[in-house]
Amino acid sequence: MEASTAPSALEIATRQKPTACVLETNLAGVDGIQFIKYLRSRHVFRLLPVLVVTRSITKDVLAQLVRLGVQTVMVKPSFSFEQLVSKLIEVSPPPDLFRAASSSRGPASAPLADSSFSGSDPESSCAAAASAPESSAVVPDSPPLRPLAADDLARLASLKALPTVIEDVLDTASRPTSSLEDLEKVLRKDPVIASQVIRAANSAAYSRGASVSRIDEALQLLGFKSVVRISMACGLVSRSDLRRANGDDMRAVWCNALCNAMVMERLSIKQDAARNYAMALVRNVPFILLMQHLEGDWAAWREWSAKKNKLMDQLVEASCGLSLVRLVDSVFASMNLPRNIQDPLTEYFRFFTAKERMEPGLVARKLDLVNQIAIYLGRPGCLLSEVRCIHLREVESGPFLAVTGEEFVKEIELLEASIGILGGADCLSNGDMGSIVLWRDARWSPMDPIGSFLEQISDCVTVNFVQDLLQSSRPGVAIVEPRTPEWEVLRASRKRMVILHSESVAPDELPSGAVAIRFPLPLCQLQIQLEKALK
């Protein structure tokens, strides 16, 4: 796509959603800096890679371009067309990777409603799903494939709930003075029971004008006795299950769900708090279904993902024969979730898990931030959860200080203890990376999920100045972006360190002897790469 003027460039960019922009500094009708400022003011283009091509450039203009997040500046005529193309490929993400992969999978890539999840012939559906995916054959030493078929979605109706929560439901039901409010307090502790209650409230049996998106609304619609019966129908995750190979991850998923729900509720305005709590609580239901489906194979698949540097989406594709996004879409559709919950949840997985470069909604963006706060609080879900730093502009002092203070953490721990799944540090891997020193530049929030993770797996000391990092005798970890003054200071140093960043960087821009790691990335991969670099 090509445009000769700024207005036409903006029109094309808005309509076509490009994955990169090559910009001449002298545009008809508008200065190139102004054009980039306008792009960055549009949230959909905040991360769009921009390459500037110019005949000459001053230090002041270069500094402005760096502040605006320009990936590369190339001065004519000192580069060839091949070099331009190579640089463009380097900074531009592969937006069609998932689409191309799904189109080559055969029957398993068709929409679920049309193939393996149609429900018309479970046996043939299962056979088709088993024969279609090639990913398990492409990567050697992978565990056996367990394709999901139509009858597997029926497991949603019998997902296993925590035994302590079931006991609390029985105890509440046995007391003649118990109210719906008492029962709601119990249901808010378990994503499985909460999802089943919301599912029943939105079923045809209780059809009404408006869909139900809150636990308290579902309770009022279904009534006390019906909710107790639904809760009793949920299978139990026994205490012995939580001590098996996948038990730690299963327990950690509940810890993550509770933490997400509580943080989401605190950060929401009053009228949205109850709905957002339910949405964050049921966000992990696809992961619970996945772990229960893979059963004893889950630990092997998790280890395979860590060793092969695979994301959660790729794990689901290799183990079950479908993408995580398609699994999520099917699960949430089968749960009869109302649109104001289902849409943000599917957006969240599509935009943040599948990494499609499109603009998510505000609720989906908040879900991502809430999950990073849960990781910061030591409740990541599992070590395949992706971690990133939190930018200062994402947080406001008042509400976010409240959800990271000691009182809020004690509230979470009390709730976890009441249902027997105390989370926190024991959800993370007990790594032993020795002593390290951490420094982050000022654009990243001190409420740092990566820093919190490092504190759990090492003797980590955080310093406030880059000079302190360089003078320390400990191996260093720096969180800084390319083309900043601090980056140049690190380039001039020969200290053994790891540099974490979110922007793309050319090999010749890396500091000598340093290892650069780009986030977001899974926690397990962060640990593996840090151990390789620092030991």
Outline the secondary-structure elements.
Blueprint: H1 6-16, E1 21-24, E2 26-27, E3 30-31, H2 32-41, E4 50-54, H3 59-67, E5 72-75, H4 81-91, H5 97-103, H6 122-131, H7 135-138, E6 160-161, H8 163-174, H9 180-187, H10 191-201, H11 215-222, H12 224-233, E7 235-236, H13 247-267, H14 270-282, H15 285-294, H16 298-308, H17 312-320, H18 324-334, H19 339-353, H20 362-376, E8 386-387, H21 397-404, H22 406-418, E9 435-440, H23 449-457, E10 459-463, H24 466-471, E11 476-479, H25 485-491, E12 497-501, E13 515-518, E14 521-522, H26 523-534
Parallel strand pairs: 1-4, 4-5, 6-7, 9-10, 9-11, 11-12, 12-13
Antiparallel strand pairs: 2-3, 8-14
Describe, in short, the structure shown.
With 535 residues, the chain is α/β, with parallel strands linked by helices. It has helices at residues 6-16, 32-41, 59-67, 81-91, 97-103, 122-131, 135-138, 163-174, 180-187, 191-201, 215-222, 224-233, 247-267, 270-282, 285-294, 298-308, 312-320, 324-334, 339-353, 362-376, 397-404, 406-418, 449-457, 466-471, 485-491, 523-534, and strands at 21-24, 26-27, 30-31, 50-54, 72-75, 160-161, 235-236, 386-387, 435-440, 459-463, 476-479, 497-501, 515-518, 521-522. It is built from 26 helices and 14 strands.
Q: What attributes characterize this protein structure?
A:
five-stranded parallel beta sheet, alpha/beta, 26 helices, globular, 14 strands, three-stranded parallel beta sheet, 535 residues
